[in-house]
Specification:
This protein is α+β, with helices and mostly antiparallel strands. It has one domain: Aminopeptidase, CATH 3.40.630.30. 31% of the residues lie in helices and 24% in strands. The chain has helices at residues 13-23, 43-59, 93-98, 124-138, 152-155, 166-170, 196-199, 203-206, and strands at residues 3-7, 64-70, 73-82, 107-115, 142-146, 175-180, 184-191, 209-210. It has an eight-stranded mixed β-sheet, sandwiched between helices. The two termini are 21 Å apart. It binds coenzyme A.
């Protein structure tokens, strides 16, 4: 099965909505806010506010994600972006101890995956990760952070694997930096700028199709 990938944006927001409705009330906005919003509100009200705010972020070009399609059907996403677009990570106690890397390189984060239940276990999250890494390379590269779940109890529940797993990132050249409490780990990878090389590195990419790969 060949899948295609597209960036989240005004034109693909309706496709993102289809998946976000399935996911629940988060709308993949939790890490985009420095502080929690909507405490004490009903789930329906939270959903309304999160959808409204996510739509605004997308309109303003302040929300990045890869959408994966099976034909015309959106089946998964991977949220990524510059660190300042995903500031909630900085508030984590474990992350706070380590801090952002020093130096002038741009800092990127990969915070969330979601795959339609019917399509899980087929490598779609991996396809989305690979496309996100290509996008980061195309946008000038830098240091990329990931926060995969290491707690076995959490990793056993698909809904708690939204950060992805360490093996996904290891296979793509990420290295462990520090524990984040008992449930997660901080991993980082440096991506040099790639420009057009990043978009033309394989026939599958040129044709807009993608299959799960073995890493870069
Ligand atoms: C986590 C999730 C994204 C994985 O998507 P997927 O397309 O099934 O994942 P892939 O097939 O690409 O596999 C990626 C990794 O997930 C892990 N994985 C996949 N299926 C698994 C399973 N049944 N049990 C344990 N780990 C599993 C593996 O570690 C795999 O990597 P590896 O093959 O390199 O070891 C999916 O289960 C999901 O969407 N869960 C809900 C997350 C959520 O609620 N997100 C919303 C946040 S707002």
């Amino acid at each position: 099965m060949a899948y295609t990938v597209r960036e989240l944006g005004r034109r693909t927001f309706a496709d993102f909505e289809i998946l976000a409705e399935q996911q629940g009330s988060c709308w993949c906005i939790f890490y985009q806010r420095a502080k929690p919003a909507g405490r004490g509100l009903s789930p329906a009200e939270q959903r309304r506010i999160n959808r409204r705010d996510k739509a605004a972020f997308v309109r303003e070009g302040r929300s990045h994600a890869i959408l994966v399609y099976d034909g015309r059907t959106p089946v998964g996403w991977c949220q990524y972006g510059p660190a300042d677009e995903l500031p909630r990570i900085d508030a984590g106690r474990g992350y706070h101890k380590v801090g952002r890397p020093t130096g002038s390189e741009r800092l990127w984060r990969i915070t969330c995956f979601f795959v339609d239940r019917k399509h899980r276990g087929k490598g779609i999250a991996t396809i989305a990760l690979e496309a996100a890494l290509r996008s980061i390379e195309k946008r000038g590269g830098g240091i990329v952070e990931a926060f995969p779940v290491v707690s076995e109890r959490m990793a056993a529940v698909p809904e708690w694997r939204w950060f992805g797993t360490p093996s996904m990132f290891r296979k793509h050249g990420f290295e462990r930096v520090a524990a984040l409490g008992t449930s997660g780990v901080l991993m980082r990878k440096r991506i040099p700028p790639g420009g057009s090389r990043a978009t033309g590195s394989s026939a599958a990419e040129r044709s807009g199709t993608a299959r799960p790969g073995r890493g870069r």
